[in-house]
Amino acid sequence: MTVTQDADPTREHVGITDTFAARRYFAKFRRITGHLVRVAAEMERDRLLRRDEVAILTGYVARLANTFEALGTKYLMTGRDGGTYLGSLAIDRVESGFPIHRELLQMAADASQLDRHLSGTPGRARLIEEMIARIVGDLEIPTRLQFTMSQRLYYEALAKGNLFWPQNDPVALWQGEGDGRRRYLLHWAIYDSQVNLPTVYLLELEDSGRVALPKDAARWASVQAHLAAQSLGGLKLVTIASGFDTDFDDLHPKRLRRLHLGPMYSSAFTRQHGPIRDVLEAARAPAGDDWALAWTVEDLQADRVREERKGWFGTVERQIFALDPFEGRGAETGATATRRAVILPQRPYQALAELQPAGFRDVTKYVVSAAGSVMKAQ
Predict the structure, then answer these.
(1) Cβ neighbours around 128 below 10 Å, total
(2) Which of 129, 144, 160 is the last residue of a domain?
(3) What digits encode the pLDDT tens for the residues 10-36?
(4) Are 155 and 121 in contact (CB under 8 A)?
(5) Contact, 297 vs 338, CB < 8 A?
């Protein structure tokens, strides 16, 4: 078992306790996050995302890449000490293939104590000198000093910022004005604790309030708190949007999208079920190409508006959202449309094309070439 030395096969969360396995895991995600930017560009060409939305998504992917780089440094010495003082990276090998939510919570806690850790640790130059002295003078591998260096680099990475946190608060982008209303695109992201996946939200709304939303301290704080509390993968988009519409009379949600970046599947690190397992087994791809990443976009759009009485003489505007009309799935999905995609290297894609499993017929395939370019399969 590559993932862990003593994993219980019934457990969903396991630790990567082998040094080289941990490094391969982070190298895999380094490549995958690089491909995600190119996939977003393909989605813009297909008019699934606008240019400003691609820029937002690219920003979150960059933050996610920085988070993986920081965690890779933190666990650089995994397995070299037998786990006595470092432990191991915990991943969700069944649901997502990503690190579990607790890893990012710990990272956020570590970031809150940066000054203490950096001031209490020798600098890089001094650590290198001590390691050389230990190697040359004592003829031994300076494992403890190497661990100290890895932690120093980890906290330096946290100090650089621009990381994907468990909760990334909403940001409002001005989109212009029409019919006497201001228009905004709100975006925020979370690392969903229920499924251990990074999830990005995009909300287009109209503002009929007297003060512009970002400048209205009371409303803006309430909006941020509301959206953060409702950002759960288990909630349908129509539930989130309807709740927002009800709680804010002068904010009118017109479109809400949720992008799930994952799960990641790999024979080396995750336990697959169904067609994806057959595809990866048939591909027999080398370690760097043994993966597939799912990408799901849920889209909810307002269809029309109705007036609702409020108080003795007042009325408020409420949105009626369009749900997926096909096969009665709208009530089930809570969205106007759901688009699924999979990103995978050439070898797994060739196996997928040969097997043609039924579950992938309506899934868009983005294929990564050996040179790293990305194209949509026809």
Answers:
(1) 13
(2) 160
(3) 457 878 888 888 999 999 999 999 999
(4) yes
(5) yes
Q: Which domain holds residue 37?
A: 13-160
Residues 107 and 203 in one domain: no
Token pair 């804010």: residue: 248
**Token couple for 180:** 């006497």
Q: Which residue has the tokens 């040359």?
A: 136
| SS3 assignment, position 3 | coil
Beta strand 197-207 pairing with 181-192: antiparallel
- Condensed to tens digits (0 to 9), the pLDDT of residues 136-164 reads 988 888 888 888 999 999 999 999 999 99
232 & 179 share domain: yes
Residue 8 domain-assigned (yes or no): no
Cross-strand pairs, 341? 295, 364
Answer yes or no: is 2 within a domain: no
Given a contact cutoff of 8 angstroms between Cβ atoms, the answer to whether 287 and 297 are in contact is no
Cα 239 to Cα 354: distance, rounded to the nearest angstrom: 40
Q: How many domains does the chain have?
A: 2
Average pLDDT over residues 154-176: 96
Identify whether 7 is part of a domain. no
Same domain, 65 and 199: no
Closest residue by Cα to residue 192 from 241, 235, 226, 253? 235
In a domain, 1, yes or no: no
